[in-house]
Amino acid sequence: MFDWDRLMNDYMGECEIDIGDCLKNAGKWIIDKSFTLSDPEKKAPKENPVSGYIYLQAKYSEGAAVDVQNAPPLRAEFTKKEEKKAEEEAKAAKPGKETKETGKAEETKSDIKIKGNLKVHAVCARDLKIGDWKTSDPFCRITFLKTTQKTNKVGSTLNPDWKKTLTFPVALKDIVSNS
Known about the structure:
- The protein has a single domain (2-65, 97-178), classed as Sandwich (Immunoglobulin-like).
- The chain is built from three helices and nine strands; from the N terminus they run ββαββαβββββα.
- The radius of gyration is 18 Å and the shape is globular.
- The longest helix has 17 residues, at 76-92.
- The protein is α+β, with helices and mostly antiparallel strands.
- It has helices spanning 20-24, 76-92, 172-178; strands at 2-3, 10-11, 29-36, 53-62, 114-126, 138-139, 141-144, 147-150, 161-171.
- It starts with a strand and ends with a helix.
């Protein structure tokens, strides 16, 4: 997670997810939950530590067929948490107050055929730290093996909604090494 800036994007935290169950259950949205952001390499300054969480959904689809199935609706427990938080923020608000999957593998050789696609739906993030003066311009960068994609940035918020699906090709070699 990063805060967009003109010169340099500020680090806001990260999470690592295990996509093994997605690979074993092709065609189903297996990951559907929020992940707490962390700072394992201590990249964030001590005076502005990492906070918040990101809500992700993911599935693996076999073959080269285009998968048009949309991500599942938000889980009820997440929706209730969001509603309760909005009520609390509304009560506390004062006028004028601003209310990775990472994987490591060897280089994929060009002669390996693509076996399928991993879809990661970056839904939203909540309770992020302030990256700029009073807020942030957050975007999510997702890395799978050696491929990185990112969501759009959402301006002036600590609670961005992206609802962006990113697709990563998966080779047969990747499936075997992650099983």
